[in-house]
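Course assignment 3, question 2. Fill in each field.
Student: A.L.
Task: Predict the tertiary structure for the chain below.
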Amino acid sequence: MKKKIVFCTAALSLMLAGSAYAKQPDDMQKHQNKKTGLENALERGNKNDKAREAIRRALERKEERSHHEEWTDTQRVAADWAKLSVTYGASDSKDSVTRALALPVAGAHGSTITWASSNPTVLSDDGLEVNRPAAGQPDAAVTLTATVTYGSVSKTKVFTVTVKAETNDAQRVAADKAVLAITYKTGDTAASVTGPLTLPVLGSNGTVITWVSSNPSVISHDGKTVNRPAAGAGDASVTLTATVTYGSVTDTKSFPVIVKASYTDAERVASDKANLSITLTEPDTAASVTKPLTLPATGTNGSKVIWISSNTAVISHDGKTVTRPAAGSGDATVVLTAVLTSGSVSDTKSFTLTVKQQLTEAQKAAADKESLAVGFAAGDSASCVTRALSLPAAGGNGSAVTWFSSNPAVISNDGKTVVRPAAGQGDVNVVLNATITSGGYTELKTFTLTVKQQLTDAQAVEADKAALALTFASGDSAAQVTQNLTLPLTGTNGTAITWVSSNTSVISNSGAVTRPAAGSAEVSVVLTAILTKGGLADTKAFIVTVKPLP
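Answer field:
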């Protein structure tokens, strides 16, 4: 099978630039409303070699104007050589190549990277065309040699990959049969079916799966309808037979299941009683209740549940109101009794709870001090603060909390403003002092935080590149795209991200997906992200497979 992807030349040219972007000089600011040669070239980058060359020259001019540290040619080549890697599609790896590769054509430090394949008939020099050996033939080992060049300095790096032979029809059927399984309703098993089943209709290797039930009056052929035998009629045995097909090859796999008879009223009540529980508000326990409870009104099998509290002044019948005894009056023990009913059958289940007395003002302040914490932004911690903080104004027991920063110019008193030191100035330690007050009692608690200095442009690009990922719609993945993708346009460290698709008729540069027509082959697409900040740029490639319409 031949899989080929044609990179849009704009993507190639952007990557040829390496670290490219820099601010425009003052004389160019006069022409803000006029498109630059670079912008025009980007628009027609998929049309001709002149446009591609224009992009390369424009980016090189920006490279010359950038303000980052000057490196020798040898240093640039060495740095780009060290970071050079191959991007594989979906579940592929160096030991199992089945689809196109993404091979960088420029390094982050401006070097040019060219590639040569030891067997271009199997894997093209650019990695975009993969011709797998025919089914039954051995896998093919291919050596990809990358030459990293800047100025007069060059260095080579070798990657050896294995291109897997095509899978024949029989192998596809056998592989999908081996992993084929039924998905049961939560709590169900093959020996105890009570609800609908999920029966796969496509295998991961492209096989078509059809199902036949030995008793469709109990389980429908598609598994979506399950009619349990009447109470007392006994359980029903059903065999579900899957037929797995690819091309002219077919095989079957059988799944014997037991559909449980409907419960009698007595069985329903007994089962629901065994499973019945109370949901407490964290961190409460049965021995320490301080907040409202959640009391189920029905059992998992349909029994009706009514609750009775032994002391409604402390816990209401529905559990929604919990009134703690006054401080000094002691804890209160309450018994909640559940009455479960189905038809003419009833039973009861009791739960003994201890409702804790209210705290004294001193205890409130002490307890709120103990639990007080600073809320950090995702990824931050006390030793690494980069964004605004969440500082609670009250404790869980009602204490008032006020905050004071030892350095409001870096962290404001309310924590909502964090000003990071400039790159090169070093990190800054800030102490946040919390005053916890309840009644006439006060507690103090301090938090020492480290505010990280800002990243250099190079560090920001590197960090955002490492964190960059595609967001897939529910049920999709890199190996199976059926819906639009979400492509981030900015990184968390302030980089700007632009995207270039290798096949805009299938995936646009904004992530909109147009699936191939029904009956067509799946299409692999390379999405290249260009991350820029200040005078630096880098790229990251993602390979995704778009499935045809059903």
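Instructor remarks: The chain has four domains: 2-166+458-546, 169-259, 265-353, 361-451. The domain at 169-259 is CATH 2.60.40 (Immunoglobulin-like).
Grade: pending
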